[in-house]
Amino acid sequence: MKAARTIAGPLLLLGICIRPLSAAEIPPDDRRSGFSFMAPDTQAIQNDDTANPGMLWVLDGEALWKRKAGTADKSCADCHDDAAMRGVAARYPAFDTALGRPVNLEQRINLCRSNRQQATPFAFESRELLALTAFVAKQSRGMPIEAGTDPQLAPFIAKGRELFLQRQGQLNLACANCHDDNWDKRLAGSAITQGHPTGYPMYRLEWQSLGSLQRRLRACIFGIRAQPYDYGAPELVELELYLKSRARGMPMETPAVRP
Amino acid sequence: MGSVLINVPKKAKRGDVIEIKTLMSHIMETGFRHLATGELVPRDIITSFSCRYNGEEIFRADLFPAISANPFISFFTRATETGTFEFSWIGDRGFSETATASITVE
Asked: Which of B23, B33, B74 is most worth mutating to test chain A (most A CB atoms within 10 A of its CB)?
């Protein structure tokens, strides 16, 4: 007993000393979706399409997809085949040549809406935009995330990674301090996950609603007591892009359910 | 937009106990929240849910402000005959939605 304690003592000290040095990206084989951190009851909600509340938005999105809008009097379905959206969400955020920077799926839908349909873009987090995004993203369910492979995106991924590693806010925390270094621990009873955006837009039980990845990011930034970026800000899109490229190869789960 | 998801088994043996699951899209605004300006957000909830099996009421529930958004209601019944389940949700501000699902009993 005493011998064990004398061995355990130094090991414990060593563990604490090594910890900051080991702060690094999660090896690909150790990556886990937020799904695996949830209780079996919550997992069951996500797995059953008739119990998953996110499917309500997917249904609304399907109706919106077919509805004509704008002065062009065109619906999404008038240009896009039903099957054409398969795999698209797994590639977003993607580079937009006209803007010269990456855009996320919500922004792409709104660009299409203002340029092609000649209609007013939907507000971020509006029921309509979430519904259309969920409808498009659900078609990529089960497909591996491929975002960030375009070489034009490299400088933006680098900026997103910089933001991920940047300590900020009154708590002086970077995303990496929790989601790279301490994902196997708990914070106030909740699991600290690895922060892989596999299931957005997702139904968060706490929100009692579907929400975008940017809403989640803003909530996290607020949590470390920093000033959140506005919806659609280039910084948020870059962070989104870095997170999606960090999760490359993991299967899409949209619409996911999280506590 | 009033989306609804219903899960009723398509087939069952006579006398089987079957589970029926329903999910209704609704904000379930409690009526206890205030806006930043201090105004009370008026209550907007579903107040009643009922299910009829070939015209006969087999399940009814009253809903209250503490029930979360998009209420998920699940219950059991015995499959007695081939027919239709009719679901009805009634709520504040004239909210009224219906849905049907059919079952074949062998």
From this structure: B23
Domain spans of chain B, in order of start: 4-105
* Distance linking the first and last C-alpha atoms of chain A: 42
pLDDT value at position B94? 95
Do A80 and A134 sit in the same domain of this protein?
A: yes
How many domains, chain A? 2
Helix (H, G, I), strand (E, B) or coil at A186: strand
What is the rounded average pLDDT of the residues B2-24?
Answer: 94
Q: What is the pLDDT of residues A165-187, one digit of tens each?
A: 999 999 999 999 999 999 999 99
Structural domain for A251, as ranges: 2-8+31-48+145-258
pLDDT at A24: 77
Burial of A243: CB neighbours in 10 Å, binned 0-12, 13-18, 19+: buried
Whole-angstrom Cα distance, residue B4 to residue A59?
A: 9
Provide the whole-model pTM: 0.89
Note which residues in 28-47 of chain B have CB less than 8 A from chain A: 28
Would you call A55 an interface residue with chain B, using a CB distance cutoff of 8 Å? yes
What ipTM does this complex have?
0.91
The residues in B 44-103 lying below 8 A from A, measured between CB atoms, are: 68-70, 72
Percent of chain A with pLDDT over 90: 87
Contact residues on chain A for B28, CB-CB shorter than 8 A: 208
Does pLDDT of A54 surpass 70?
yes
Q: For residue A82, tell me if it sits in a domain.
A: yes
> Quick check: A15 pLDDT over 70?
no
Measured CA to CA, the distance from residue B4 to residue A56 in angstroms comes to 7
Of A48, A69, A49, residue with least CA distance to A57: A49
Domain spanning B4-105, CATH class: mainly beta
Mutate one of B25, B28, B44 to test the A interface: name it (highest A CB count within 10 A): B25
Q: Where are the alpha helices (DSSP H) in A22-52?
A: 40-47
CATH code of A189's domain: 1.10.760.10
- For the segment A25-36, what is each residue's pLDDT rounded down to a tens digit? 899 989 999 999
Q: What is the C-alpha separation between A185 and A188, in angstroms, rounded?
A: 10
